[in-house]
Amino acid sequence: MTVNLTDRMKAWIEAMGCHLCVATPEGVPFVVLGRYAEVTGNGEVAFALAQDEAKVIAPVLSENPRVAFGVSRQGGIRAAYQFKGTGELLRSGQAFDAVSGRAREEKGIDTAAVLLVRLTELYCTKPGYEAGQRLDGMPPEELDAWERQRWKDVPRKRD
Amino acid sequence: MVKFTKEMKEALRVPGKGGSLIYLCTSSRDGNPNIAAMRFVATHKDDKILIADMFLLKTKANIKENPDVAVTICHPLDEGRWWVFKGKAVDMEYGFPRDFDWYGANATDILNEWGNWNKFEPPDEVPPDIVFPKAVQRGVVVVHVEEAYSIEPGHVGEKVLTG
């Protein structure tokens, strides 16, 4: 099932970047930053990773492709969502070239790998009774309306 | 045994006191990762991170089956708080045996000091459209930190604390 992202979610992801969490098959978690993030399709987010960032998660992803991420900085509270999916590290190809080119231009990142996450789950993490509510079953219009009832702020993109 | 630096201790406090919003990263026993932002954070001694158990769902379930966790700073990052703390966690809930010990952290001490967290460190800095209507605390997550690595660009993966 495709996970729909609202325009506001896309804006927060791309403006702030994300904290990316992976885990070994035995359950040991690791975290790196996805400083450059780009929503490449509905339900698909790409992160440009430098060599040292890719080095931390590549061995883990090779054994277990599951990825969870949340929006960095103010997004941790202003964009109260958890995104989950399966990740693939791209080292070359058209998608790699496109994302790494924009990451270099916008953030000066020397991209060693692009982490492409195909989303499978979306959760609300707003503190309170809605914490943990699963949102990926909602049709796009319903999800958009649900979010608009709560938040409308959209961040400016960081340098 | 690790020893937090002064900067780490200052960062691992509630945001309203100059601390940070943090991400608590857990995993199921079979490797399904989970990441959730937390506001109530503090340190205990030189090697423990405390986090209030409020509204925890998957995080709580994961800790009950797998103690391996990672804690990292979500916001602010630009003050040099580029750390990921790794260690073993337990959720000390009300009703725990009073003499329960987690790597030197005693359940009675922890719950007496931090068991009513919202009362002495209320979320005054949290925007009104985010703040929760009523805080219900069920316990305190105690993370025994065993190592920490950097996520600072250019230094990612470098050890900043080792046991």
Write up what this structure looks like.
- The complex is a heterodimer of chains A (159) and B (163).
- Chain A has a single domain (7-150), classed as Pnp Oxidase, Chain A, CATH 2.30.110.10.
- Chain A has 159 residues and is α+β, with helices and mostly antiparallel strands.
- In chain A, strands 2-1-5-6-7-4-3 form a 7-stranded antiparallel beta sheet.
- The radius of gyration of chain A is 15 Å and the shape is globular.
- Chain A starts with 6 loop residues before the first helix and ends in an 11-residue tail after the last helix.
- Chain A has 5 helices and 7 strands.
- Chain B has 163 residues and is α+β, with helices and mostly antiparallel strands.
- Chain B has a single domain (6-162), classed as Pnp Oxidase, Chain A, CATH 2.30.110.10.
- Helices cover 16% and strands 38% of the residues of chain B.
- Chain B contains 4 helices and 10 strands.
- In chain B, β5 (68-75) and β6 (83-93) form a beta hairpin.
- Chain B is globular.
- The relative contact order of chain B is 0.22.
- Classes of the chains: A alpha+beta (159), B alpha+beta (163).
- Chains A and B meet through β1, β2, α2, β5 and α3 of A and β1, β2 and β5 of B.
- Chain B: This is Pyridoxamine 5-phosphate oxidase.
- Chain B: Residues 8-90 form the Pyridoxamine 5'-phosphate oxidase N-terminal domain.
- Chain B: It comes from Methanoculleus sediminis.
- Chain B: Pfam families: PNPOx_N.
- Chain A: Residues 130-159 are annotated as: Disordered.
- Chain A: This is Pyridoxamine 5'-phosphate oxidase putative domain-containing protein.
